[in-house]
Amino acid sequence: MKRKSRLTGLLAFCLTICLVGGFLVPGSIVRASGQHPLTIDLSDGTIVNVPEYFLEEMYALMPVDYDQDLDNDGNPDVHVNHKMSKGDNMQKLESTNIRGSYTWYTPETYYYGPVTFIFSIPLTIDVRNGNVEEVPERFLDDFFMFMPADYNHDLDGDGHDDIHLNHHMGKGENVSMLDSTNLEGTYEDQCPVRFKYAPVYYLFPSHAASHVIKTEGCTAYNAYIQPITTAGKGEFVYVFVDNEATPKGRYCASLMADKATFTEEAPGTWSFTMPDSDVQIWALYENQQSYTVDLTSGTAIIPAEQAECLFPSGIPGEMDLDKDGKNDIDTAWQSSGDLKVMGLPGTNIKESYTYEVHGRKYGYFNFIFAMPPKTYAIIAEGCTAYDDNDNVIISAAADEQIIARIDWEAIPSGKYCADLQSTASGLTRVSPTEWMFTMPSKNVTVQAVYENQKSWTIDLTAGKTAIPAEVAYCLYPPGQDDDVDLDLDGHNDIHAKWPGSGEAELTLLEGTNLSGEYLTTSLWFEYGVYHYQFPEKTVEESSQPEESKPEESKPEESKPAESKPESDSSKEESQGPSSVGFPWYYIVILLGGVLLLVIGFLLGHKKPASE
User: Fold this and answer.
1) Across the beta sheet with 163-166, what order do the strands follow?
2) Model-level pTM?
3) Rounded distance between C-alpha atoms, residue 499 and residue 100, angstroms
4) Residues 6+ positions from 396 with CB-CB distance below 8 Å
5) What are the φ/ψ torsions at residue 431 (nearest 5 degrees)?
6) How far is Cα 334 from Cα 497, in angstroms, rounded to an integer?
C-alpha cells in the first residue's frame, strides 16, 4: 500500500510539473497548430490593441522603452512601450525609411508570424482635369498642417509651383494643377515617412506640342539649367548671354524677342514663359564702360554694380592684374554690397594699370596705384641706420625719421664713439648709443667720431663711494642695483646702487678677496679703465684664525666625551620599569581561561528535564 501511494504521488508530481511547465511556457500547447499572421497598422502613428501576448513573446528581454530596427538598415522603425497594458503600446518612428508595408518574419518558436507592419498608404491624386474631388481631408492634415488656407506647392523643387491647395476646405476640389508647373505624366512625391499617405502619386497631363526657340548672342535653358532649343506652352525658360559671341568692347545690354516678355534675373540672365508659338531672341549690344579705381591712398570702394562686373562669380579675393605672378590687389565684400579693394605691397605695378573684362557692362577697370616715393642713399660709417619699424635701411625717402646706432664692432681698440656727425641737419642724440635725424631730399652720410677712452679711480678703502652717473653708466645698467664679481672668483666684490640722485653708489662687500688696487677695462665706452682701491689685508688678520682653531676646538671636543656616560645611565634608568617586574596581565588571561572551562563543563553535563 505504501509502495502504491508512493507511485501515485510520483505520478501526480510529474503531472503537476507538466501542467506548471505548460503554464510557465506560454503557447507551448497552441504552437502545435503553427504560427499565426499578425497585421500591425502604423499608418496612423499610434496603434491601439497590439496584443500583449505579442509584446511578451517578441520583446521578453527588452526594457520598457525599446526602439527596434525591423529592416536592419541602421534606422529604428518602431517604438515599443513594453508591458504597458493593451493599447497605445507601439508607434512608428520618424527615423524609419520604410514606406508602404513591411513583413517581418518572426522566429519559428513564436506564436505570431509573419507580422506585417503597415507604415503608410499609397495615394494617387489626378490633377489632369484641373480640380480633384475626394482627396482625403487627412491627407491635407498630414501634409499641409502648417500651411495657410491657400497654398501653392512646388513638388519637384525647381522653383516653380506645381499644385494649388485649398487647406481645410472639406472634401472635393481642394487640389488643382498650376499653369507654371513643368511636370508631366506621373510624379511621385518624396514625402516624409512620418505621414500616413506615402508615396503620393500625382498624375499630370502631357505638355502641349513644343515650339522652336531661336537665339542670337544668347542661349536658352530649361528650369534644370539644361540648354534647349524647343519648349512647350507655359514652360519656364532661362536665357543666358553668350559672352564668347559678344563683340570685343561691347556687352549685352538687353534682349529682344518677337513674342516673349523678359524678366531680368541677374546681370546677363533673363527669363520668360514660353508662349504658344515659336520664339526668336536677339541680344542687344552696347559699348562697354570704364571705371577708375583710385588706390593712391591704399584702399578704394567699388559700387556693387561695377563690382559685379569685376567679380561675376561673387567670390572676391586677391588678384594678379598684370599676370606677372604677384598679386596686386585684395578685395572684400561690404555689407552694403560694395566691394573694398586694397593694394598689396608685393605688386609690381607702380603707376596705373587697365584690367579688361570681356562681355560685361563695365569692361575696363583703371587701377591707379600710389607713386612710390623717391629714396636717397644713407652712407653709414661706424654706425647703422634704421627706420621707424627697426629695420636696417640703406636708403629712405625725404622727411622719414632715421635712427642711427653705434656699431660696436667697428670701434678701434682703446677708443669710444663720442658722437655722430652727418651731412643731414638736426642730428640729435636720444640715448648714449642712438642718434635721430630727419631724412633730407638728398643723399646723407652719417659717421662715428672716435676719441681715446678715459680712466677713473674708485676708492673703496672707506667701504663706500659715489661716482658720477656718466662714469657708472659704462659699468652698470642705470637704475638697476647689482652685485659685481670683479675678479670672477665666485665671490661678489662690490654692490652698485642707483639711489636716484644722478650718482651711483658703490659699496664694498664683505665676501671680497680683493685688496690693494685692482684694475678693470671696459670696451667701447668713454671711461674704459677703472682703478679700484681696496683696503689692504694684514698678515695677522689672515693667520690668526688658523692658529686659534686648534685651541678653541679642544674644550668643545671634550664636552661630548664627559656627557656621554650621563646620557647612557639616564637611558638605562628610564628603560628599567618597562623591562623588569611581573607581567600582571598574564594572570588575568589565565584566570579568564579557567573560568571559561568550568562553564563549559557544567553546561555539558546538565541533565534533561524529563530524566
Assistant:
1) 131-132, 175-177, 163-166, 150-153
2) 0.34
3) 95
4) 375, 376, 378, 385, 387, 402, 439
5) -160, 170
6) 59
Residue range 176-216, pLDDT digits in tens? 888 788 887 778 776 655 567 777 778 877 655 678 999 99
- On whether the CB atoms of residues 275 and 209 are closer than 8 A, the answer is no
Strands 90-92 and 78-81: antiparallel
- The Cα 40–Cα 64 span in angstroms is 19
DSSP string, 91-112: EE-TT----SEEEE---TTSSE
> 201: closest CA among 193, 210, 190, 214?
190
According to the 3-state scheme, what is the secondary structure of 167-197?
A: CCCCCCCCEEECCCCCCCEEEEECCCCCCCE
Note the pLDDT tens digit of each residue in 271-329: 998 888 899 999 999 999 999 999 988 899 999 889 988 887 677 889 999 999 899 99
Q: Which residues pair with 283 in a beta bridge?
A: 255
Digit-coded pLDDT (tens) for 104-119: 766 655 667 678 888 7
Distance CA 589, CA 592 (A): 5
Higher model confidence: residue 297 or residue 355?
A: 355
**Residue 333: which H helix or E strand, with range?**
strand 329-333
- List the one residue out of 505, 458, 500, 496 whose CA is nearest residue 477: 496
- DSSP letters spanning 17-53: HHHHHHHHSTTTTGGGG--EEEEEE-TTSEE----HH
| First-to-last C-alpha distance (Å) of the chain | 39
Contact 348, 365 (CB under 8 A): no
**Which has the closest alpha carbon to 383: 404, 398, 402?**
404
Radius of gyration of the chain (CA): 54
> Comparing C-alpha atoms, which of 111, 101, 102 is closest to residue 34?
111
> Do the Cβ atoms of 535 and 543 come closer than 8 Å?
no
Report the alpha-carbon distance of residue 506 to residue 484 in Å, rounded. 10
Contacts of residue 87, Cβ cutoff 8 Å, sequence gap at least 6: 48, 49
